[in-house]
Amino acid sequence: xxxxxxxxxxxxxxxxxxxxxxxxxxxxxxxxxxxxxxxxxxxxxxxxxxxxxxxxxxxxxxxxxxxxxxxxxxxxxxxxxxxxxxxxxxxxxxxxxxxxxxxxxxxxxxxxxxxxxxxxxxxxxxxxxxxxxxxxxxxxxxxxxxxxxxxxxxxxxxxxxxxxxxxxxxxxxxx
Length: 175
Ligand SMILES: [Zn+2]
Known about the structure:
The chain is an alpha+beta fold. The protein contains 7 helices and 5 strands.
């Protein structure tokens, strides 16, 4: 089952279909429906519904069946959304995000940073020494920057992305 509140799932869809598209995906009726029905149920403009359906179709997350009215000759498209192929795709996305965060964490843990009291920017110790520990922007003294908060945030995000079988409570896992 695809969890639409999951950070990775949300991020994935949001970047591709935007807020309106998310609304369509979240409130999509079960079974076969026309785009107009989807628009009514989700309260999203027909154009945005069609855009979203097309995106889902392109990514094999939606399919349609055409039906022809024998009297009028009108064609009706009956849509069905199935997000289950997304699982493997999201696993890749999750791994990519995790790898990035772990790289970032290592960078934060292995380096010593310097900044001024206005936090104009951050630099390495070597660069700070070269600047005689004076901020090139505001002229304030450069001091050691405590990045413990940053590290804590990154660790929390890593925990959030990790599978649910590990201890997933950031408050008890992070000292
Ligand atoms: Zn400064």
